């Protein structure tokens, strides 16, 4: 599933292309996404100009000069592609086409149909149910060591699933949680409340991994591509993810794999030994 760096890469591509462009025509080819398209989507969008493309967690928020915002989620296999207008029949898994006033089109393609594209009135966006449950953005000021330490102190489960909880912090998915924990030297099964003392290191490494992944255009594992159709390349820089049995790049021990909350976790048993260190809050 595309994670924060992949969605941010798509956002940046769309932001370079769409603002100022008018939507001349909206075509809906298949409506069987996990949530049906909003009622009246075509007439509500036709004639409107894009103004800004924003990301919140893994959601794309496509603002227009009209009253509605396009709220989109890529699901597992969704991609937006901006290309010259084609007059041929849509591909099998194409769900949406937006014809623009500059001779281009925006295509949404999603073979597994777990994506989401709906319209939300801009005035209702701050209180929308999909957005109000989200924690802070990991690359913004609200994600501080003090905040993370406070949150981790409340959790007794393993650290890796905790970091993947969007109510704690958004966008730290399976790949980037594994990579950040390796850099921080923390075993993924360490109880979260024992990691509060390492909150500063975790914030630093989470931000570094995500920033590097965005600079590389994200990670292409199966279906992900940028809005120009090109793949991401951060998978060539993985230290542990998907490398079970390979030597650790630091100590040459074999990378191991465990399953946590139904997801694969990769770690070095030597560099990330299972040690616990309680966090003692200073008395005021």
Q: What does the model show?
A:
It is built from 7 helices and 10 strands. It has 284 residues and is α+β, with helices and mostly antiparallel strands. It folds into 2 domains: 4-132, N-terminal domain of MutM-like DNA repair proteins (Alpha-Beta Barrel); 145-267, Orthogonal Bundle (Helicase, Ruva Protein, domain 3). The strands form 3 sheets. It has a 4-stranded antiparallel beta sheet with strand order 1-6-7-5. A hairpin with a 3-residue loop joins β3 (59-64) and β4. α1 crosses α7 and α4 crosses α7. The longest helix is centred in the C-terminal third of the chain and has 17 residues, at 199-215. The model is unreliable at 219-236 (pLDDT under 50).
Short description:
By secondary structure, this protein is an alpha+beta fold. The chain contains seven helices and ten strands. It has a four-stranded antiparallel sheet with strand order 1-6-7-5.
Number of E strands: 10
Overall residue-averaged pLDDT value: 88
CATH class descriptor of the largest domain: Alpha Beta
CATH architecture of the largest domain: Alpha-Beta Barrel
Unreliable segments of 5+ consecutive residues: 219-236
Q: What is the number of helices?
A: 7
Structurally, how many domains make up the residues? 2
The CATH superfamily of the largest domain is known as: MutM-like, N-terminal
**How much of the residues is beta strand, in percent?**
15-25%
């Amino acid at each position: 599933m595309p994670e924060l760096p992949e969605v941010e890469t798509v956002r940046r591509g769309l932001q370079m292309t769409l603002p100022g462009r008018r939507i001349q025509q909206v075509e809906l080819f298949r409506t069987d996404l996990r949530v049906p398209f909003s009622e009246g989507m075509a007439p509500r969008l036709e004639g409107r100009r894009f103004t800004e493309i924003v990301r919140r967690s893994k959601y794309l928020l496509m603002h227009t000069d009209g009253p509605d915002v396009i709220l989109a989620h890529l699901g597992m296999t969704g991609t937006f592609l901006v290309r010259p207008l084609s007059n041929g029949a849509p591909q099998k898994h194409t769900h949406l086409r937006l014809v623009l006033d500059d001779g281009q089109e925006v295509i949404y393609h999603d073979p597994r149909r777990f994506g989401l594209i709906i319209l939300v009135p801009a005035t209702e966006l701050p209180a929308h149910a999909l957005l109000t449950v989200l924690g802070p953005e990991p690359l913004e000021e609200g994600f501080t060591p003090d905040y993370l330490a406070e949150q981790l102190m409340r959790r007794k489960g393993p650290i890796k699933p905790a970091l993947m909880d969007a109510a704690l912090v958004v966008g730290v998915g399976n790949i980037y949680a594994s990579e950040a924990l390796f850099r921080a030297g923390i075993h993924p099964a360490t109880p979260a409340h024992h990691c509060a003392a390492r909150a500063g290191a975790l914030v630093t490494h989470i931000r570094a991994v995500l920033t590097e992944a965005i600079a590389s255009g994200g990670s292409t594992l199966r279906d992900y591509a940028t809005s120009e159709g090109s793949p991401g390349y951060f998978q060539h820089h993985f230290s542990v993810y998907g490398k079970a049995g390979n030597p650790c790049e630091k100590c040459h021990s074999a990378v191991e794999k465990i399953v946590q909350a139904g997801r694969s976790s990769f770690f070095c048993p030597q560099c990330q030994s299972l040690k616990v260190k309680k966090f003692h809050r200073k008395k005021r």
